[in-house]
Amino acid sequence: MTQLTGRPILEAPGELGARPVLSALLTGIRTALLGLSVVTVPVLGLWVVTPFADDGAAGALRLASALWLLGHGAPVLRGPAGVPLSVAPLGLGLLAVGQLYRAAGRVAARGAGRPGGRGGVRAVWAGYCAVACAVVAQCAGAGEFRARVVPDLAVVALVAGAAVAAGARRPGAAPAGAEALERALARLPERVRPTGGAPVVRVAALAAGAGLLAAGGLVVAVAGVLAAVGGGAGSAVFAGGPAAVAGVLLLALVLLPNTVLWGSAYALGTGFTVGAGTVVSPVRTALGPVPEFPLFALLPEPGAGGWRLAVCVLPALAGVVPGLLLGRAASADGGLPDAGRVADGPAGGPARPGAPWPVAATVVAALASGLLVGGAAAGLGWLAGGALGAGRMAWLGPVPWWTALAAAGWVAVVAAPVAVLVRSRALRPAADGPGRSWWSGVPFVPGALAVTARRGALLLRARAYGLVTRLAGAPGAPTDPGAPAAAAPGAPGGPVR
Question: pTM of this prediction?
Fold first, then answer.
């Protein structure tokens, strides 16, 4: 009897045992509807307050569905000609991914330790995709915005699956790609291997990415101030009344992440395009006719860069923090009580376990961080761009590969010397003896050579002082320039009468 009464009732077979999966399915549906309402409510509100609206409520709902699909990266068609529209508002995409991540995490935590607990996570994905099917069906007919059924559903399912899989990872699990990075670093030769450096390489890459995003935000803020002071395009949109202003501001808000990424590409020097045959970069700006939209009012005037080249300093500053992190990690054990222990011998040999990294390994860690930042820059640059139409407006935004090369190059070129310098300065107290220079671990600058050069400079200064004293005819000048001068009577240290 005790065994029968102590059995959890929710694990009994039948209808009661299916409740956790049903609850997870409803969680996925609720998550999708919540994200859809964030788009639908403002659109319907603007339709209500807009006087003489061209479309009815069905057109407003279609616009909201199209924006929701675009937020997931699913392209839609616009107009009777079916012009492709694929610029994804990343603000909506971040909202959708964040909601799915949290929902999957809660469901996975509730199902931990239960038989078939992973089924709840799959149910969340299925519920979200069910709402996506309804949205695509509503937006698939004839109208101003049309969805492509199979490609749009595939994109939404892929994005939802990635977000759910990331949210369902067990607490304390290694970040995605961490094991691959550790294996890649472990395959390197011992002389250039940053032992145990995968975590700090990831942190340094995140710091560099955050610095580049901050640079992009600063570029956008300065451009906004200059546009507000000098006026410019977009005034016709703001003259359309409060409803038009509110709509433009909401659209600018969901496109703000895109704008920051474009600003980061501009600061990197590669810039971005606003249609075929155009370029917007610190070096040169060449533009054609652009749509009347307030965000395009932030574009610089066509012509040579001039003072705008100063923004290229921002990526250099973004590479300083990763260099500091890597330099401290490279010399983490340099100040241990065993001060004589060094990472590498006078010839730059391989590091022993627990010892500071060699200089070559420090440089490799900086290069690895740059490669991670470059890969992320390529992906984000591709997501931030897209098409606003056919022909000339077939692509807007950063060129992913150029942006990746610029980001990786800036981070590696700046972070590597900073990391080596920080490592060397941190290892200076660990130098044991006068024959050890602060360039610990650099095989081509031995410590003995530095000490010899220092002694030679001191001897040359002493001889020059003696020569000047004799030429001046000072009494008591030393006859040997290398010998110390005799102390004058009564002087400190001299004989006292």
Answer: 0.76
